[in-house]
Specification:
elongated, about 0% strand, mainly alpha, glutathione transferase activity (chains A, B, C), about 160 residues, Four Helix Bundle (Hemerythrin (Met), subunit A), homotrimer, acetylation (chains A, B, C), transferase (chains A, B, C)
Amino acid sequence: MVDLTQIMDDEVFMAFASYATIILSKMMLMSATTAFYRMTRKVFANPEDCVTFGKGENAKKYLRTDDRVERVRRAHLNDLENIVPFLGIGLLYSLSGPDLSTAILHFRLFVGARIYHTISYLTPLPQPNRGLSFFIGYGVTLSMAYRLLKNKLYL
Amino acid sequence: MVDLTQIMDDEVFMAFASYATIILSKMMLMSATTAFYRMTRKVFANPEDCVTFGKGENAKKYLRTDDRVERVRRAHLNDLENIVPFLGIGLLYSLSGPDLSTAILHFRLFVGARIYHTISYLTPLPQPNRGLSFFIGYGVTLSMAYRLLKNKLYL
Amino acid sequence: MVDLTQIMDDEVFMAFASYATIILSKMMLMSATTAFYRMTRKVFANPEDCVTFGKGENAKKYLRTDDRVERVRRAHLNDLENIVPFLGIGLLYSLSGPDLSTAILHFRLFVGARIYHTISYLTPLPQPNRGLSFFIGYGVTLSMAYRLLKNKLYL
């Protein structure tokens, strides 16, 4: 039987596991942020969520959209669209035997860029802060995909 | 050469594989549910989808939104936002050598909470049914992330 | 210590890595396509994105939705909803020791169907082009889930 705990002795894999867990936890914060704004601004998407604020027609006025909430939701969806490729490609890249320092540089750049992307989106900072942080994360993932396909293509 | 089939002899990993497959299959049901409501209620997002119901201006009236369809879509997006972190963090957690019974408790709680979340969202059940099931799934994922980072942090 | 680079000697796993990387890269193209249409059609979701096109009230007219942009966004979300289950179930399926030619057939069908889905969505081609390509990808993922649970169920 393979002792799976040994997989975690591989330094590249351990680094990937750490950075992936950090960026996924950050993404989960977006759910809490949405919930926070929905509660404090009384902006809901479902009738059953606002019954504590009033009955019948009185409750319906809380079924609306709000700029602040929509902004958090757009940031959350953008996270999903970019973190899913990072997870898939990053996992396979980590298993393809890359150089440790190159791999860590990729992971750090991605995680840093995505955190800065969230800050730029929620503050909001003027462009090109958000655009630039998006493209850094995007480029990091494509760079890992390129190295993976160059070394290990099997179709 | 590593015999990869041996990885599946690891009990924690087999349990993760089973629960992950079950919850992903449940998430895929949401696509079918959306399609079902779009067909039976004749509510479409694309002009090419409603040509069988009429031509020209007559078809355009089916390009609309519907409470029931939007509810399923929100439940689906909430699934994505929560199952993606579970998959990433759960996979790495499974490889980090956790105690079998602790790991299975995490997986069962998460899968149970997410199935109950879908039931609460689609029925809909009054709050706090949906809120509670959301937070159980959320807490399980954070608990796995915490154990992973505590034991294996490598930055 | 396990030499992780040996995992990539497994042919099924290498094939999965290649096809997963290709389909994730295709999904990332959807972000670039959205950005392209937003720029060329001057359709933005955030006030900070359109300041270069005018000041104050003049800029606000670019905060709108556009059929073309919404179409790309729907295709992107549909990709996410279908590629996430493929990644999770496909990874576990690849590790469960399937027959090489069966596995490659699954991966090729999925990747082909999803690429055709995107072409059908963005052109747009008349139905049932998009519907059919959706159901092929859906069926492939369910087929892998079925084989995984049949052989390796551990609850």
